Structure formats: C-alpha cells, structure tokens
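Fold this sequence, please.
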Amino acid sequence: MKNLAWLTDIHLNFIEELQIGELCKMIKVSEPDSVLISGDISEAPNLENHLRLLEELIQCPIYFVLGNHDFYKGSIHSVRQTAKRISESSNQLKWLSNMGVVELTEQTGLVGHDSWADGRLGLGNKSGIFLNDFMLIEELRESRNLFETLNALGDESADYFKRHLPEALNRFQHLLVMVHVPPFKEACWHEGKISGDDWLPHFTCHAVGEVLRQTMSAHLSKQMTVLCGHTHSAGVAQILPNLEVKAGAAIYGKPSVQEMLFIE
C-alpha cells in the first residue's frame, strides 16, 4: 500500500515563500510516498524556482504535469524544454509528459500528459470566450488560426495516450492518469454544475477523452482513475464502470492538498 498526495492548481506565483513552506509542511504531515500535481504550478518565469523549492521542502518524488498558467509569460516550447531539463536532472521532480509509464506499485501504474483545452466541445469554434491564455502564451498569441492550434495541442496529448496506454494496461490492473484539463464534459465542473456550452471548448480536451473512453471500453477488467484540475471546481464523474474522473477544487492564494490517495 502506498499513499499519494494529490494537488492541483496551486498557483504558487500568487503566494509568498512562507506560505509555500506552510503548504509543504501540510503535505509532509501526511507522509506521502509521492506527490502528484495536475498542473498550474506557477507561471513560466518562476516555474523552475518554484519546482526546485517544492523539491527541497517536500523531499519525496513529485510527479507533475503542466497547466495553461505554467506557460503564461512564456512559450509552450521553452517551458516544455525547461520541464524536460528539470525532470532529467532531478531525482525527485518528474514531468510525466516525458516519462511514459511509471510504476507506482505492482498493481498500479501512472501515465500523464499536460493536455490542453482543444476547442471541440460545446460551441466549439463559435464560442466567443476570450481567455488570458490567448495573450500570455506565445504560440497562442501568434497563432493565425487559434482553434486549429488548440485542436493540434489536444491531438498531441491524445496521441501520447494512444502510444502509452497499451503498455500500461498490459502491465497494471489499475491506472492513474493525470492531466490538467478535464477530458470529458461530465467532469468539467463550475460552481457545482457542468460548464456551459460557451465555456466547454476552453475547459475540456475532447480528443483525450475519446482515447480514454475507447481504451477502457476495450479493457473492462481494468480500472482507470483520472485526476485533473483547470476549472477550480471539485467533482467526480463516472464515465464508465471502470473509468472515473476526479476534478480538483482550487482557490487562488490558498493552495492545499486535494486528496490523499491510497493505492495497492
């Protein structure tokens, strides 16, 4: 049995180092074997410093994916390069988008990717919502066709899972999948309700959801638990009998442990 501390949308750029220390003390009290962070850790200029500080203060393996805010004031390419370099040089900080399948126990594996809201659900490209992402992330700001770019980012994440899920399901009875963006409409919560059709294109990754649904429909004897964030609202969605999605809650300036997960 192992215990995992799951956090999401901690937005460390909104708090002082003293508060980060308090968060890490809270985490350590639970004596986790590993920490999971499902994105929105910081912003591009401070991401490495904040990850290094978590590593220093928590002192156990930290598996993370990146969220949209982690690319703010930077570019997708440069932040990914930073995350890759950190992951390859650290014994504790592990960027899941560069790791394939991770063994947590003999029964449970971990697969994760940053994912992206791919603009497909709800009103799709007819949505009039304009996010800070479109100004603060270089590739989106400079995109000639925003929704084509969002589609491509979602497809990239879906392709990652297509490549790695077969191996994971061959090896493990239970899979933990970590993404930032909810992969299903049913898991896209806002204030206790499913997000409206105008917001859904920017708060779900339909491409990833389709891969997860199809994969688990073909492996009914296996179990998958998906951890995500992004919407700052908690909820649980049972997509299939063997496919559960947990979305985490968050409040800017008040990061916390989302849940302690106990796995065999």
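The chain has one domain: 2-263. The longest strand covers residues 2-7.
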